[in-house]
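Handout, section B. The chain below has 288 residues.
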Amino acid sequence: MFGAVVVGIGIAGRVRIRDMLTPLPGTPAEKLTVKGFISRRSLGTQEGVVRSQQRDCEQRDIHVVFICTENAFHEDSIRTFLQAGKHVCVEYPMTMNYKAAVELWDLAQEKGVILHEEHIELLTEEYKALKREVERKSLQDGTLHFTGGPLKPGFGFPSFTGIARLTWLVELFGELSATAATMEEDTSNNYSKMTAKLLTSDNSPLTWIEERGPGLPRAKNINFHFDSCIMTQMPPAARGTVGIFMQDMINFSAKLAGQVSPEEVQREKIRILLCLKLAENIQELCQT
């Protein structure tokens, strides 16, 4: 069994506790047992799980840490727990810059532990349906336009907070490069719009837009031109039978149990670092 603690008790942290208390039978997730949680707030017991102190978790019989805090706190928390020899599962993005992410991967390797960045957006039925539609089609050009409400402080630049959409594009169309990017902001109205111009490896143009402001619906709008058709709507997707956080927990647990091949782990690491580097490049282009 792997004793685990959850750092941060927001929506995601509570879901992690729930899923560890009721894992999907017959999966590696059954090997996780929640021992406590860490929160900056003075909270009482959650689902029968007691609040812990970080220093205790670094020394106690804890093997695994789930980091579910604001993005700005991820890097320091990961580093602390990796140094203590703990396996870490962290929400995306793991860091706000590429160099720090490389250092953390190296530290995990040095300590002989698993570092797993959660990407639940790749586990949604919505994404899986889109992936099936895109397969074997040749992209000519395309746009992915995300809208949503304002983010609270501590979540970072839009190319990092929106890295789920960037990961979609990389998984759908392969390695990308950033050629231009702009950022529009109206801080008085809590509005922002980032527009990034990307190229695929065979020079097909893609535009990625992250737009946030009060009253904007949470939605993904696509316009993909292929050699054989045009897609302007997300394909219909049935409701999944297994929750996306549970799917991610099973994937992470499989790594802990040695059930994921080194080649697959390496491919995932390459994709994560590619997206973080791309997010950093987009931020730099917006700020020049």
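Note. The mean pLDDT is 93. Compare this with the example in section A.
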